[in-house]
Amino acid sequence: MEISTDDKDARWRVIATDLRAAILDGRYPPGGALPSEPELVRKYDVSRPTVRKAIETLVSEGLAYVMRGRGSFVRPMPERRTILITDRDRPDLAAPGNHPDVQAFGWDLAQRDHEAPLFTGEKTTANRNVAVLLGVRSGHPVIHRRSLWHRGHTAAVHGASARLEINSYTNADLLPAWDDPKRHAQYRKRPDFFYQSLTREHGPVRWMTLTTARIAYEDERTTLGMDYAEAVLIIRRTMAHPNGHPIEVTEVKAPANRYEIGHHRELADAPEADLTPQELADNGIDLVI
Amino acid sequence: MEISTDDKDARWRVIATDLRAAILDGRYPPGGALPSEPELVRKYDVSRPTVRKAIETLVSEGLAYVMRGRGSFVRPMPERRTILITDRDRPDLAAPGNHPDVQAFGWDLAQRDHEAPLFTGEKTTANRNVAVLLGVRSGHPVIHRRSLWHRGHTAAVHGASARLEINSYTNADLLPAWDDPKRHAQYRKRPDFFYQSLTREHGPVRWMTLTTARIAYEDERTTLGMDYAEAVLIIRRTMAHPNGHPIEVTEVKAPANRYEIGHHRELADAPEADLTPQELADNGIDLVI
DNA sequence: CATCATTTGTGCGTATGTATC
DNA sequence: AGATACATACGCACAAATGAT
């Protein structure tokens, strides 16, 4: 059959490499159409499955997208906005989803399914991942708080709005007041109360923020409104005792094609706390962690 | 033909969803084998191309990998080491690839193809992306310095060592001394001289570091030694005039499954400058930017 | 409004090559 | 050497979305 036999120049790989170079070069401009499958079949004299394999590769690399019945297109890159990480021991600012702050920083609708509380909050048990983060055993009771934010339709390419998901996990042993009905309601509506309780009962704490990324899973693509194959930025902030034992972990997930992460020193001379919400928004800052 | 016809329950999608859930659940443990293609063909009563499509999906999501002649396996997650971002105006530390520092922070072999200079350095012209970063027009002369670092075989899963790629772009107009043969050699061997020149000639400068991520392209996977589909962390540090105009841009690319990004305040009480190289390494820190 | 050409999505069967055990 | 498993590639058929006629 005389197939190329060398994996390095498999025919689909040649096509993918050609197209990738052309896209990164700008020969196919962002938003523009790539050649149709039949065109590529003719051009490279291969079968349609081979052409499709090449295009699927570009899609999985986030370089292209496909619309059924229309064709394949170069994926445009939206402008990235900024998530600002603070170093300070300021639980007021550090509290994620602290309503006044987050709203002020450019979030149009801080609603979650039209319900009142900012966070869903429920007592569950730690799965393997959460157990590692909190330094407890799997199955240990934890408080799981979750919040989903979206930022109104900006100059979005496909009409999709940017979203952020915030998950918070707390060792339930460290916040027995959670079960008090009155406080429970407060905690769900006012994250600052939540953090104040923790700091009041567990004294001076350390904050530690680590950032990484990975490819989004399909369910995350759905909840974060990511149309294409993309990476998610994962910002994990740990509130810990001075001895290092974790008290609470907050994990922010953000689509990597819409967000970048900066640090407070980067804002000219004035510390960010002295900037007005409008000034922060003008600097492209959506969230302060 | 009676094909399911509804894209939502495409047969390959059902299989992929099943396998993904099983992997995230731990029913297929990390490093363990997934069912072989023929097994899945029998289990779901579909053709082999359909099974392969499902597996390819998991691979492109970074959840699995395939070894020819052996089978498909759940991708284990290696431990992440840390890249530390400093906020200070310290060009000595800030200089990437400053030989003594980088080596001290745990890099066994800071060699690049067994050549002497740490950085390749050449004068080229700005492509579109670099032009945007430096605030010049496409085609403007720029100095491009490049360096590739690898960290010896740690507890790597597949024997691959972690690697970092560092690219630096400078507006060539701002460093005419680059063309002086004597200095040229110095600049390539001693990045600190390079940055000292820039700061000496352009006075007080601002440093700005922004981090984001995206899915790695195939060529990047090769140079960064990433066996699987993965995200790359992109750390972009800009050296700018106080008025904001860029002088030099350093871009670090790191495999997101092996690195996370932290900040200097997180190191206990002592600033990282006071820690010995060994203490830094013990804290899992590979690089200070 | 219906029809048609174009384009992509899903799926089958088959053949051959190559790596691993 | 043989069995197993994955990689590449072809041809074919039909479904479904799109846009123009």
From TrEMBL, chains A, B:
<dbReference type="GO" id="GO:0045892">
    <property type="term" value="P:negative regulation of DNA-templated transcription"/>
</dbReference>
<keyword id="KW-0804">Transcription</keyword>
<feature type="domain" description="HTH gntR-type">
    <location>
        <begin position="9"/>
        <end position="77"/>
    </location>
</feature>
<protein>
    <submittedName>
        <fullName>GntR family transcriptional regulator</fullName>
    </submittedName>
</protein>
<dbReference type="InterPro" id="IPR036390">
    <property type="entry name" value="WH_DNA-bd_sf"/>
</dbReference>
<dbReference type="InterPro" id="IPR011663">
    <property type="entry name" value="UTRA"/>
</dbReference>
<keyword id="KW-0805">Transcription regulation</keyword>
<dbReference type="GO" id="GO:0003700">
    <property type="term" value="F:DNA-binding transcription factor activity"/>
</dbReference>
<dbReference type="Pfam" id="PF00392">
    <property type="entry name" value="GntR"/>
</dbReference>
<dbReference type="Pfam" id="PF07702">
    <property type="entry name" value="UTRA"/>
</dbReference>
<keyword id="KW-0238">DNA-binding</keyword>
<dbReference type="InterPro" id="IPR050679">
    <property type="entry name" value="Bact_HTH_transcr_reg"/>
</dbReference>
<dbReference type="InterPro" id="IPR036388">
    <property type="entry name" value="WH-like_DNA-bd_sf"/>
</dbReference>
<dbReference type="GO" id="GO:0003677">
    <property type="term" value="F:DNA binding"/>
</dbReference>
<dbReference type="InterPro" id="IPR000524">
    <property type="entry name" value="Tscrpt_reg_HTH_GntR"/>
</dbReference>
<dbReference type="InterPro" id="IPR028978">
    <property type="entry name" value="Chorismate_lyase_/UTRA_dom_sf"/>
</dbReference>
